[in-house]
Design goal:
Number of helices: 9
Largest sheet: 6 strands, mixed
Distance between the termini: 66 Å
Bound molecules: adenosine-5'-diphosphate
Oligomer: single chain
Strand content: 15-25%
Length: 480
């Protein structure tokens, strides 16, 4: 069952119950009120009748109810020309009983005129108290009031008055019918209005559901729920849903981008692996040729194969380093002296590149928390690039400022054009003026990944024609 139907049914039921309680209360009050006013009227009537009746019946001996020959009741007009009872109202039934509850006077003087009187009534009257009861007289529902007239402490006679309840009951029935029909119409009407209101109120939820469904079907996270209503609970739900969609969209785009990068990466890796492997395979084919190639050529082919194998190993090592960084395999951090690691790297590189002039200005004992191997790898990549992409002097400096260590590698090469600068830290990206051999475009991405692992940053400043400066920054180690 839908929430809309549940809500509508709920408040329709509440309305029905309220109307029922209201109807029953109204009916009961009306029934009681009409009965009370009837009783008041009958009491007035009986008071009016009491005096003339006393003139006639006071002191009259009771008839013997067991005597079959006792006289029939008398007609009212037999007394004092009937004038005593001329005040009897229309539709009012009056009877006079003696103290043994035998009918002694009625308008027509017939024994059958006797009104119903229950045993409890007789007991009450004997106790000299008034008695009210309802009974059927000539097929009509009547209210019968009996009042004993006391003389000298004894019941002298009893006056009875009866009034038809038919009119009152009819009025009550019609009230009940009116209330039921009006209540029914109100409930049906309220159900319709409630159905519309709940539909209107729940429409944003429906829209959210539809949006969610469309997103699910089409994977279109750019969709939003359009809710222009107030910021009530539903408004908040719509806003929260939209906020969630914004975050989902961002996450989805990130995952998409990461997947694209991964696909690109795999394509690049395959390409880079294929080139040396193809060369090796080609050289192997040359070696197997019969008749075999001359000895000198064989030497060249073997050298070529060794070179390509080394290149393959370098590539695999680079990929491994990146894979470790991606898998967040934490580098083992130790207290490390950056100055001495940098000195060591410069020494190694200078030894291999004697023709290059590397000037260094290194502040001693720059201590950080990091890994010597990782630092060495970063520094070698940056010095190596400075050598590869420039021909002039190389300036290396290391200093500290604002609780950070700054290491800069400055060359006087061609510099990096702006459009290339934003890509140089991407995997397998190589600039237009890249060196022809060796590199895979993985040096700077590795340097960046390792720097990040050690809570550092890497940045580049470069002007075309003036050279490039790569700056690495690490937080200085503080013993506490
Ligand atoms: P690789 O050197 O193998 O090409 P890197 O990731 O180390 O890969 O560098 C990426 C690119 O950044 C290089 O191809 C080159 O275009 C550019 N680059 C890096 N260092 C320098 C530098 N010092 N001067 C000019 N260009 C540089």
């Amino acid at each position: 069952m839908s929430i809309r139907l549940k809500l509508t049914l709920l408040y329709s039921t509440i309305l029905t119950l309220t109307l029922m309680i209201f109807g029953v209360a109204l009916y009961s009050i009306q029934a009681q009120e009409t009965l009370n006013s009837l009783k008041e009227d009958m009491v007035i009537s009986i008071m009016r009748l009491k005096n003339p009746a006393m003139d006639i019946f006071l002191g009259e001996p009771p008839l013997n109810p067991d005597n079959q020959n006792s006289p029939p009741p008398k007609r009212f007009d037999e007394f004092l020309d009937g004038s005593a009872f001329q005040d009897i109202r229309e539709r009012e039934i009056v009877r006079i009983l003696d103290s043994t509850f035998t009918l002694i006077a009625s308008p027509y003087g017939k024994i059958e005129d006797a009104l119903p009187l229950s045993e409890e009534g007789k007991i009450a009257l004997q106790d000299q108290t008034d008695w009210w009861e309802e009974g059927i007289v000539a097929d009509e529902q009547m209210l019968i009031f009996s009042r004993p007239v006391i003389d000298d402490g004894e019941i002298s006679f009893i006056v009875q008055i009866a009034r038809s309840l038919t009119e009152r009951n009819r009025t009550l029935r019609s009230l009940a019918t009116t209330l039921s029909i009006a209540g029914g119409i109100i409930v049906v009407f309220a159900f319709g209005i409630g159905w519309m209101i709940s539909g209107f109120t729940l429409r944003p939820i429906h829209r959210i559901t539809m949006t969610a469904k469309k997103i699910g079907d089409k994977r279109d996270f750019s969709r939003r729920v359009d809710h222009e209503g107030p910021q009530d609970e539903i408004g908040q739900l719509a806003s929260t849903f939209n906020e969630m969609l914004t975050k989902l969209e961002e996450a989805y785009n990130k995952v998409e981008k990461a997947l694209d990068q991964q696909r690109e990466f795999i394509a690049d890796v395959s390409h880079e692996l294929r080139t040396p492997l193809t060369t090796i395979l080609g050289n192997l084919a040359l070696m197997r040729r019969a008749p075999s190639i001359p000895d000198d050529d064989q030497e060249d082919v073997l050298n070529d194969m060794v070179e390509e194998s080394n290149r393959l190993i370098r590539l695999v090592n680079d990929l491994l380093t990146l894979a470790h960084a991606d898998a967040r395999q934490k580098i083992k951090m130790r207290i490390t002296d950056v100055s001495s690691v940098l000195d060591e790297c410069i020494r190694e590189v200078s030894h291999l590149n004697r023709n290059r002039n590397i000037n260094s200005k290194i502040f001693p004992e720059l201590i950080m928390l990091g890994s010597k191997d990782a630092l060495k790898q970063i520094f070698l990549i940056l010095i190596d690039n400075a050598i590869k992409y420039s021909s002039g002097n190389i300036e290396i400096s290391a200093t500290e400022a604002d609780e950070n260590i700054y290491i800069s590698f400055q060359d006087q090469g061609k510099g990096i054009p702006l459009h290339e600068k934003k890509h140089i830290f991407e995997r397998f990206y190589r600039g237009k003026d890249r060196s022809k051999d060796e590199g895979f475009g993985l040096g700077l991405p590795i340097a960046k990944a390792l720097t990040r692992e050690m809570d550092g940053e890497i940045a580049v400043e470069s002007n075309v024609g003036q050279g490039s400066t790569f700056i690495v920054q690490f937080p200085i180690y503080k013993s506490e």
